[in-house]
Amino acid sequence: MRSLKTFLLGVFALLLLLPAAYNRVVHSQTQKGDPPTGQANVALADDDVERQCSIDTEVTPCLRCPIPTEAPTGFDDKTIDENFVPQEKHDAHRATFEVRDEILPDGLGPVYNAQSCAECHQNPVSGAVSQITELRAGYIDNPCDPWGYDCPQFVDPPGGSLINDRAVDRRVDPTLLVANIQERVPPLHSAGIDRPADVATTRTSLNLLGDGFVEAISNQTLLDIQAKETNENPNVHGLAIRVPVEENRNGRCRIGRFGHKDQHASLLSFSGDAYLNEIGITNRFFLMENTSLGRSVANFDFVPNDPNLPCDDTVTPPGQRDFCGEDNERDIDTFTIFMRATKAPPRDRVIAATQDAQEGEKMFKEDGCAICHRDTIITAMPNTVINLGTFTVPPALGNKIIHPYGDFLLHDIGTGDGIVQNGGPKTRFFVRTAPLWGVRTHTRLMHDGLSLTFAANTLPFASAIKRHGGEAQFAADKFFARPLSEQRKIVIFLESL
Ligand code: HEC
Ligand code: HEC
User: Fold this and answer.
1) Average pLDDT in the 452-480 region?
2) pLDDT (tens digit, 9 = 90+) per residue, 276-330?
3) What span, in angstroms and rounded, lies between the C-alpha atoms of 358 and 492?
4) Is 415 left (phi over 0), alpha (psi -120 to 50) or beta?
5) If you measure from the C-alpha of residue 274 to the centroid of ligand 1, how many angstroms do you get, rounded to a whole number?
6) Using CA of residue 19, residue 25, residue 29, residue 33, what is the dihedral sign?
């Protein structure tokens, strides 16, 4: 009898363990663990890795907390605070952000998207947004296992999901007959890639103005927002994901907040990633050039990919790493400090003062839009240590009130592009709530730029609000149940942001 019991228990335990074991097998077919290069161009294949990565709360307790003050706003190229970054320096930092990199001497490419940060972040001033989109693509593998674990699984094309739009076409050794290295969404038959991509998407550029304040939001504040949202409406399930911070890769994480997939948590990490992936400049976080869909780019690389190129420490103080690749002047630090000192996008005061816009704002809240598009967030106290111990919030960025009209969390509103970055398989169809500050300067809406109006439905493309399904369906339903005269007022409010 006892042996039968033991046997049955054994079978039961086996049944419990099987799905986990199956899950492992599925995972082992793709990369497992941390994204190997740390760059958000590589899909994380295991949700557990993300979920289990520990974070700091980033809260400084205070007994009599000082009253927070409004963050400065403006499209005026001005620093947020002379004591933090003097104007003269801010102008110099902006100039670096605007510099066009060349093949020689800078090391542009060999695969790249544009020659300067400002090329894609400029409307109406450097650091803002633009109409430029880029490409991501990938494969779907492993149809669901019987337990429905993490499936189907997203898999990167060779070299990562970012498909660079431009490539150097000058050969270092012109006698070497090698095909050019232009990437495209697979298939690329001549490169031996016959399998067509299963998913492909455009991704719009994003506004960077005011991102220093976003970086200064504590992890705990984002987790509190996550908990609050579901209380405010049970359909809403904001997802905060944990991502590595390049400046301190110690196996711990921070809540991601930058990029359409919340793929980064710090502006320095994003700068390193963007310098490599957008412009093709290797730097101390990412010392290896991107391949062209897995093919070597060596014969197009005029600044040899020497991971031992030392940093020029006369330019800025030494960091934790000794080798800077093609970024020996540590431009990534300059981009970071530039973004941290930018003012947040301002409202259009004339439109905001109209009765229509003000009534529209009220209805925007009534319809539940503001549950995700949150109008007020307060940054961490000055002197709070963030980014895994690598940055201390200065008075210019701390305890500030911002109005991002976003929550920096991921949601499934039915628009997801099917691509996984470092949030793990569960984030395939999740997109970050688009922060609506500065949205009046965006002409192509939603992460793919495919919505060309806020709400008009008479044109052959879907408007941004019409595409809100899933978690946001309830809000879109309320919006479209309103008479056109009221919908118009909500749109006028959006036009003031
Ligand atoms: C070819 C166009 C292009 C160039 C050049 C470019 N970016 Fe971007 N940037 C984008 C796009 C597109 C996104 C959104 C990416 C995504 O999430 O898929 C983005 C997002 C960002 C973000 C996240 C902003 C936020 O609030 O979420 C930061 C920070 C950033 N870029 C910094 C930079 C820096 C610094 C440079 C220069 C090294 C740069 N970018 C160059 C197109 C570009
Ligand atoms: C459940 C959360 C949620 C709710 C509720 C919600 N949104 Fe959104 N909103 C999002 C997400 C996520 C995106 C980005 C989707 C994408 O890019 O695919 C977005 C994008 C947008 C955009 C496009 C902005 C841009 O820069 O591309 C507009 C405009 C917008 N929402 C307006 C509204 C309005 C108006 C309402 C209320 C009727 C609303 N949203 C309700 C989550 C939400």
Assistant:
1) 91
2) 999 999 998 998 899 999 999 999 999 976 666 677 765 545 555 668 889 988 9
3) 9
4) alpha
5) 6
6) positive
Tokens of 166: 């431009």
Per-residue pLDDT tens over the stretch 320-375: 566 888 998 899 999 999 999 999 999 999 999 999 999 999 999 999 999 999 99
pTM exceeds 0.70: yes
Residues 415 and 432 sit within 8 Å (Cβ to Cβ):
no
Q: What is the 3-state secondary structure (H, E, C) of the chain?
A: CHHHHHHHHHHHHHHHHHHHHHHHHHHHCCCCCCCCCCCCCCCCCCHHHHHCCCCCCCCCCCCCCCCCEECCECCCCCECCCCCCCHHHHHHHHHHHHCCCCCCCCCCCCEECCCCHHHHCCECCCCCECCCEEEEEEEEECCCCCCCCCCCEEECCCCCCEECCEECCCCCCCCCCCCCCCCCCCCEHHHCECCCCCEEEEEECCCCCCHHHHHCCCHHHHHHHHHHHHHHCCCCCCECCEECCHHHCCCCCEECCECCCCCECCHHHHHHHHHHHHHCCCECCECCCCCECCECCHHHCCCCCCCCCECCCCCCCCCCCCECCCCCCCHHHHHHHHHHCECECCCCHHHHCCHHHHHHHHHHHHCCHHHHCCCCEECCCCCCEECCCCEECCCCCCCEEECCCCCCCEECCCCCCCCCCCCCHHHCCCEECCCCCCHHHCCCECCCCCECCCCCCCCCCCCCCCCCCHHHHHHHHHHHHCCHHHHHHHHHHHHCC
For the chain, the structural domain boundaries read 35-495
Nearest-ligand number for the alpha carbon of 135: 1
Q: Is 132 in the pocket of ligand 1 (CB under 6 A)?
A: yes
Residues 238, 241, 247, CA angle at the centre, nearest 5°? 145
> Position of tokens 């730029």?
449
CB-based pocket (< 6 A), ligand 2:
236, 364, 367-369, 371-373, 411, 413, 415, 431, 433-434, 436, 439, 442, 445-447, 454, 464-465, 468, 471-472, 475-476, 479, 490, 494
> In this predicted structure, what is the pLDDT of residue 33?
43
What ligand 2 atom has the least distance to the C-alpha of 371? 5
Q: How far is the CA of 322 from the centre of ligand 2 (A)?
A: 43
Give distance in angstroms: CA of 411 to centre of ligand 1.
Answer: 20
Between 387 and 153, name the one with better pLDDT: 387
